[in-house]
Amino acid sequence: MASLSLSGPPLVLILPLAALWFAFVMWGLSWMSGWRGLARDFATDTEDPPESMRWLRSARLGWTSYNNCLRMGGDARGLYLCPILPLRLSHSPLRIPWSEIRAWERKKFLFRWTDTLLLGPTHLRLTVPSSAMESLTAYLEDGRDGRVQTRLR
Fold first, then answer.
1. Which of 33, 54, 74, 116 lies deepest, with the highest CB count within 10 Å?
2. pLDDT class for 79, splitting at 50, 70, 90?
3. Phi, psi (degrees; rounded to nearest 5) at 72
4. 146 pLDDT tier (thresholds 50, 70, 90)
5. Is 33 exposed, middle or buried (0-12, 13-18, 19+ CB in 10 A)?
């Protein structure tokens, strides 16, 4: 009978390389999406998330889709976005003040409603299902005070 032998790199080398690869991919996603830029201005700690947090929400930020991996909520201080634990490696939790939301638009495409927000000075586009924003619409309308457009340009 032939004995089984392991060929290839040992597991001791594969695990650290896989961890480094994951860290590199997460860093690339945060850069491509614009999350990294938002974190410079709006990063927050997770000590006091809003009570209206919803788990496993989807969003599109910049060129990147975050499907079913975000916690999203809001209160009078702003919109709160936080990825689930493995993604937090390079995606710090964000609290974006309502005054930093430059424009807001709700649209229907086929059978689905979406809200699109332009965030911060760079006008980064965040698109979320309207159902995720239902409890936050009052904050958006209150925070507008003439600066936030209701239609995107």
1. 74
2. very high
3. -135, 140
4. very low
5. buried
Place of tokens 């619409």: 137
How far CA 136 is from CA of 86, 108, 115, in Å, comes to 26, 18, 11
- Residue recorded with tokens 């005070």: 145
Angle between helices 11-33 and 35-42 (to 10 degrees): 70
Residues 6+ apart with CB under 8 A from 83: 66, 69, 70, 71, 91, 93
Quick: pLDDT tens for 93-121. Answer: 999 999 999 999 999 989 999 999 999 88
Query: Over the Cα atoms of the chain, what is R_g?
Result: 19
Of 130, 82, 74, 76, nearest to 104 by C-alpha is: 130
**Coil, strand or helix at 11:** helix
Question: Which tokens in the block code for residue 37?
Answer: 């830029």
- Pick left, alpha or beta for residue 56 (phi over 0 → left; psi -120 to 50 → alpha; otherwise beta): left
Residue 93: DSSP 8-state: -
